[in-house]
Specification:
With 351 residues, the chain is an alpha/beta fold. The chain is 21% helix and 33% strand. It binds flavin-adenine dinucleotide and FE2/S2 (inorganic) cluster (FES).
Amino acid sequence: MGNTISLKVKDVVRETSDAVTLHFKQPLFRKVKYKPGQFLTLNLDIDGQKVSRSYSMSSAPNLDNTVAVTVKKVEGGVASNYINSKVKPGDTVSMMEPMGNFTLVPDKNSKRHVVLFGAGSGITPLMSILKSILFFEPASTVSLVYGNRRVDNIIFKEKLQELKNKFGNRFNLVYCLTQPDRSWSGLKGRIDEAVTVNVINMLPKFDEASTEYYLCGPDGMMESVKEGLKKVKVPKERIHIESFTSSNESEEALASLGDLTTTEVTILLDGEQHKVTVPPDKSILDAALDQGLDMPFSCQSGLCTACRCRVKSGEVKMTESDGLTEDELKQGYALICVGHPASNDIVIEPS
Ligand SMILES: Cc1cc2nc3c(=O)[nH]c(=O)nc-3n(C[C@H](O)[C@H](O)[C@H](O)COP(=O)(O)OP(=O)(O)OC[C@H]3O[C@@H](n4cnc5c(N)ncnc54)[C@H](O)[C@@H]3O)c2cc1C
Ligand code: FES
């Protein structure tokens, strides 16, 4: 984890007026290994500035020949507009190796129902998961509930229809549009709590114990879906969430960590030891970047795990730990973009 790779763009495919897919060539040797639902953090050079952004892979491992990310323009967004207008076949892009815990690895003997709720660019990891399940878990069923504004905003519309034609009853495809034209006969409006409850009641019934839910879209949508799923008594452990948007650490979140004081932290980076002074109002990552250290990071809000460090001694408290698995927490990893010193003897290393 944390290693950098460089991949060549093989193809750039326009999906909608505001979204493109970059298809990267798989290297002949040392192929990029990843799990369905994981993401890449691209390191771009935009007008002389180093910009790092994470993008979930829309390709599926062991199925698609290229490694693909699909990027939707965000108004005023630096990287998404650059990728949509400037990246071309033949370009080489530097990136961090695949990461992320929003994954579902297919098991050919499994028989389950995988229910995916997505909106807009949130389709990307869901696309990877749904292809993997359809192709590699012959006894499982996938249901996708996908929200967009209009029909022409639906990313992968043709591919999804092809999958529907190929897999029939094993793939339930439900669109929900907020601004459909008059001819639209499908679901209308946002994917909210009521839509979630309706859709769940509409879908074929499966054993609840073998049903998993994956959500990716705007945070508001995911909150509503969670509420809807709570209403139909889906246990929390069956709901998996990927958020694309970051929020700064709130004062409340910082206050919840108790008294923070200015503390010196030792960071091991590329075989060297660096002493970084972390003030109470800054994360360890911010303090390290202020000091000019070339630390790995992307979302800066505890979502992407790009800044994951192993805590070799001392204690780091986090305002957000959802990005790490229970195992990672037990093994002593911390996300330092939301990490603050809780002792005076901290030694950490990106890992
Ligand atoms: C784990 C992870 C996976 C991701 N996967 C994808 C993906 O597959 N496809 C994809 O298109 N994006 C994805 N993103 C979002 C992506 O990393 C960037 O945040 C996004 O492209 C905007 O970057 P930007 O440089 O264009 O915007 P910036 O210049 O960083 O921001 C411009 C403005 O847009 C707001 N903003 C930033 N991101 C969003 C957003 N997603 N929606 C609405 N407003 C936003 C910012 O708050 C800011 O006000 C993912 C993010 C994470 C953390
Ligand atoms: S930079 Fe994304 S989790 Fe820290």
